[in-house]
Amino acid sequence: MAAFPEGKSSEERKHKSIPNGSGTSQGQWGRAWEVDWFSLASVLFLLMFSPLIVYYFIMSCDQYHCSLTDPIIDMLTGNSHLSDIWNKTPSLSWKAANIYIFWVTFQVVLYIFVPDFCHKFVPGYVGGVQEGSLTPAGTVNKYEINGLQAWIITHALWFANAYYFHWFSPTIIFDNWIPLLWCANILGYSVSTFAMIKSYFFPSNAKDCKFTSSLFYDYMMGIEFNPRIGKWFDFKLFFNGRPGIVAWTLINYSYAAKQQELYGQVTNSMILVNVLQGIYVLDFFWNEAWYLKTIDICHDHFGWYLGWGDCVWLPYLYTLQGLYLVYHPVQLSTANAVGILLLGLVGYYIFRMTNHQKDLFRRTDGNCKIWGKKPEYIECSYTSVDGTKYYSKLMISGFWGVARHFNYTGDLMGSLAYCLTCGFGHILPYFYIIYMTILLTHRCIRDEHRCSSKYGKDWKRYTTVVPYRLIPGVF
């Protein structure tokens, strides 16, 4: 949910040319064109070990009560072998396969065949058909923004079942969690492989494809910029937002239901996880149209990184706090619960208001008020690949004058709040804040490398005025 650091003027958005940096070419748009040995080594490492990392985390909860060290100690001391751990792991089942097939199919139906109606009666919500950003080929794709609607319909049916129909137990997700992991992997690898084959034989737009000399790099980072089937099924928007993020809150509800079943109560820590992460998920769908302007949609190609990552990595590792609390229920003191809630809410406020300030600045071309006064900015220029000169404005007021990526700072505060609900008994639930810190720091560097290439000396002027990336006075 990270956004770009720069704001574009309304005049700039009128031009239908490729907004590359001065002296740059289309080859520098999006992911890398040439692959060095370090990038290739990183890709091979992630392709080999990411699935094992997910399995290890989930297995450790299932067999070792969420301890990340006990499986290794058991194997080193000879008390257990890899074959023993694997043999105790639940295998793929027809029940899990049917659940998963129904889930994905249902989300596809909601995505393609149910046009958004929320924007017609919900004040302030932007839904329905919206335009994305300019692609490398110079086209502007249209999207059916209906994620909030899909989330509402899905959750209405879930609660109707839980309290009235009783078709299935609310613990169904937790009870089939590992068999569902195999289903998620099958989908993740299938869609990533299909996207690669599609880019070779029937790309949606051949000019938006990037090929390198490395098959592994292309498979992971993607070749096609916006692979689509038909007019509306966009791979990036669907897999980024659905089915993983719609499922996020349902997964947490299933964990809470399991806690109730096992212990006769739901702890305040589990309630906090559900509330804070629920706010995050609802924010994503409320601002789905804004998401079309983020790095995932505007600069990433669609490959294994997004395809498998959204099917497996996101739903399984972003929900570790709730999973941990099933095995280790934590009842926080009132003071600790209030403190964690405030940390999460303040983090969310910073995250949302920072993005709101940038969006307002963009939409009004700086003719607005930020913190009660007209915003200050640095006027920048860059030249497109066709030699046309454009102008842009980098805001240095409000939260954007505090740090260059202060929205990420708010995101990290919220991430820390999720983890703190679990206490300090194990490291496993803190994986999320560790991962998000690495991810968002990398995005800072990645964003700024692109902006430096684009704006040149103007970017140096900007970083002189706003010297810190995330934490004022520190970084």
Automatic annotation (TrEMBL):
One MF term in the entry's GO annotations: cholesterol-5,6-oxide hydrolase activity
GO cellular component assignments: endoplasmic reticulum membrane; nuclear outer membrane
Originating organism: Pelodiscus sinensis
Record function comment: Catalyzes the last step of the cholesterol synthesis pathway, which transforms cholesta-5,7-dien-3beta-ol (7-dehydrocholesterol,7-DHC) into cholesterol by reducing the C7-C8 double bond of its sterol core. Can also metabolize cholesta-5,7,24-trien-3beta-ol (7-dehydrodemosterol, 7-DHD) to desmosterol, which is then metabolized by the Delta(24)-sterol reductase (DHCR24) to cholesterol.
UniProt catalytic activity: 7-dehydrodesmosterol + NADPH + H(+) = desmosterol + NADP(+); cholesterol + NADP(+) = 7-dehydrocholesterol + NADPH + H(+)
Record localization: Endoplasmic reticulum membrane
Designated name of the protein: 7-dehydrocholesterol reductase
Region (Disordered): 1-28
